[in-house]
Specification:
single chain; 137 residues; alpha+beta; Alpha-D-Glucose-1,6-Bisphosphate, Chain A, domain 4; 6-stranded antiparallel β-sheet; 4 helices
Length: 137
């Protein structure tokens, strides 16, 4: 997991609320990036953001695993980069634990530069401001 982004967080919400935030296109577009996600195996979707440098602003994804209210895995591809994002939810009653892994960073550029940029973004989106604020609405 050395070449992965691994984050863990507990949210004071129901499992239904967190699952909805991760699988509903309108919700995820609000706290992460505009997208057209659907929690259906094989569904292809995109995240869209502002282009920057050599990045065209589009992340191409495909749902690889869906276990409702437990696990969501999708590919995360941009340019030559082909990685995987995994969300595991653990219902604790009053809270939900989220285990997040973004894996598959190959090559020196991806392992060090891209992984660091995405790590900072995921920390902001998952651990601090965005998702937490969305779930409090």
């Amino acid at each position: 997991m050395r070449d992965s982004i691994v984050l863990k967080r507990s949210y004071a919400c129901s499992i239904d609320q967190l699952w909805e935030a991760l699988t509903n296109a309108e919700a995820m577009s609000e706290w992460l990036m505009p997208c057209d996600i659907k929690p259906a195996l094989g569904h292809k979707f995109q995240f869209k953001t502002k282009p920057k440098g050599g990045f065209d602003g589009i992340v191409h994804c495909e749902i690889l695993t869906v276990v409702p209210k437990e696990r969501l895995v999708f590919s995360w591809c941009s340019g030559k980069m082909k990685t995987k994002v995994s969300f595991q939810l653990i219902d604790k009653g009053d809270t939900v634990d989220l285990n997040f892994i973004h894996s598959g960073f190959d090559g020196i550029f991806e392992r060090f530069f891209v992984r660091q940029i995405l790590s900072n973004g995921w920390k902001k989106k998952l651990l601090t401001v965005n998702l937490t604020a969305y779930l409090k609405k």
